[in-house]
Amino acid sequence: MDRNQITKWLKSPGKMAHKYSLHAVYFCTGCGIIEIPPVITARWDAERFGVIPVATPRQGNLFMITGYVSVKTLKAIIRTYEQMPDPKYTVAFGSCPINGGMYWDSYNTIKHLDKYIPVDGWIAGCMPRPEAVFVGVTHLWTLIDKEMANGYIRYKKKYAAYRSNQEMALGELDWPPLYPIEDETEEESK
Amino acid sequence: MTRIIQLVLSPLIALVVGVLLLGLSRKIIARIHRRYGPPIYQPVIDVIRMMSQRSISHGSLFDLGVVFALAGSLVTVMFIPLGGTQACQPFAHGVLCPLSSSGGLLVVMYLMLLGPLGLALGAGDSANPNASIGVSRKLLLALAYEVPFLLVILAVMSHYETISLTEIVARQQQAGWGALSVPLSAVAAFLILPAMLGVRPFDLVSAPQEIASGPMAEYGGRSLALIKLYGATHLFLVIALFVDLFLGGGVNLATFLLKMLIVFMAVEMINAVLPRVKIEDAIKFCWKWPAGLALLQMAITVLSKSG
């Protein structure tokens, strides 16, 4: 442990612990997932950064979406994201969740993931190298330090807008809203 | 007064040492895989992180089951002597064992089941199919290792002709380790040690890849932190019991922890290289080799005592 971090640890242990214990839920949507096994196993060893995969969304705090998002998987992504306990951070991996990537004109693929769930960081590339994951993780540390990785707060604040976007893509949603919706979008979300 | 100090000290030692052993386990496995591995205090960071997260509840039993498991294993630690001899006098009987009694070993045997039962209660309340598969595997595995474990304990008790754990430790410090006087029982106990700890090759209870970490599937946030602490205490408990039964306890706390470290390293070496077995193979193994060895040792002990 770095010695000048001790004051930070004493000031906000929760935040620092979140930085160094990112338990990741890898959402295997597309080809991006093939880069994850080398990251978490012996070749690149993500565990030295405190990043380990967990089995269920309840236990994690880092949500990684690796690859393109089809309309069907978007549903599963939203449900997984809503099951994770706060605070949680989302990182989109590869160029497909950013703007569609090579599926930019596909009828069945979501082009901009951050319309539907808040995304804290992006790792661009097709494919990004495993090292890019570590660059992403260290960048996420900086964001957590400056309290800019606040996607879960944004989600709570602008839930009505996110929900209406989700309904636009998926039609009627068959689960109740996560947060209460007060304004005029209430009628539509029923 | 010394008893009150011991009552606080003994669970505290179990928690701290157990959590550090968990970290050491990750480091050892990393080094065997030729990676750098996380820092040794990584589980502490994890527990702080989980404590700061909101946890989801599925009912009162879901929350209380975890507390029950943690409390049960912390109470069990108090019945286990953690080093010290009759000669040295910082504590009441010279042994760091706050609740030492004449029937210690039997109490430990009963109380050790509290942890798994608490976890099973809590996980059963979550109504997650993965959790119920995990719970059924946990109870079947307990059935598998309890049979050889009881035979081992029976052999030890009939060899030393006492059911007091402190007495057994004291006798070993006078007349040589239990591993030398009941060798086959020691081997049997070492063979079921991974099953009691729930590590590979018997980590089928919390298999993350097949049943989404089993009983812990629905736990997150604070409850998961308590489960982590329960796991650490249980790890400490089982290895401490092994050291007390077969390696003669410890002259003081330092030697006791050193012996624990050696046993733990041996278990971790097995953990790092073996794959996971199926539940029926686990039962088959536990009821064949460790149970057979323990039975043989018990027959030898009883015959030599009566002859």
Which pair of chains has the greatest number of interface residues, and how are they split between the two chains? A-B, 27 and 33 residues
Q: State the CATH architecture of chain A.
A: 3-Layer(aba) Sandwich
Question: What portion of residues of chain A belong to β-strands?
Answer: 5-15%
Average pLDDT, all residues of chain A: 84
Task: State the helical fraction of chain A.
Answer: 25-40%
Q: What's the SSE blueprint?
A:
The complex is a heterodimer of chains A (190) and B (307).
Chain A: H1 6-11, H2 13-20, E1 23-27, H3 36-40, E2 52-53, E3 62-66, E4 69-70, H4 71-83, E5 89-93, H5 96-99, E6 109-110, E7 121-123, H6 130-145, H7 151-157, H8 159-170, H9 186-189
Parallel strand pairs in A: 1-2, 1-3, 3-5, 5-7
Antiparallel strand pairs in A: 4-6
Chain B: H1 2-32, H2 42-51, H3 60-78, H4 104-111, H5 114-125, H6 129-160, H7 165-175, H8 178-181, H9 183-197, H10 208-211, H11 222-246, H12 253-273, H13 279-306
Helix pairs in contact in B: 1-3, 1-11, 1-12, 2-11, 3-5, 3-11, 5-6, 6-9, 6-13, 9-11, 9-13, 11-12
Note down, in words, how this protein is organized.
The complex is a heterodimer of chains A (190) and B (307). Chain A has 190 residues and is an alpha/beta fold. Chain A has a single domain (20-153), classed as 3-Layer(aba) Sandwich (Rossmann fold), CATH 3.40.50.12280. Helix content of chain A is 39%, strand content 13%. In chain A, the strands form two sheets. In chain A, strands 2-1-3-5-7 form a five-stranded parallel sheet. In chain A, strands 4-6 form a two-stranded antiparallel sheet. In chain A, helix 2 packs antiparallel against helix 6. Chain B contains 13 helices and no strands. The longest helix of chain B is centred in the middle third of the chain and has 32 residues, at 129-160. The radius of gyration of chain B is 19 Å and the shape is globular. The termini of chain B are far apart. Residues 88-92 of chain B have low confidence and may be disordered. Chain A binds chain B through residues 1, 13-14, 16-18, 20-21, 23, 41-42, 45, 47-48, 50, 53-59, 61, 84-87, and chain B through 26, 30, 33-39, 41-42, 45-46, 48-49, 51-56, 130, 208-209, 212-213, 216-221, 224.
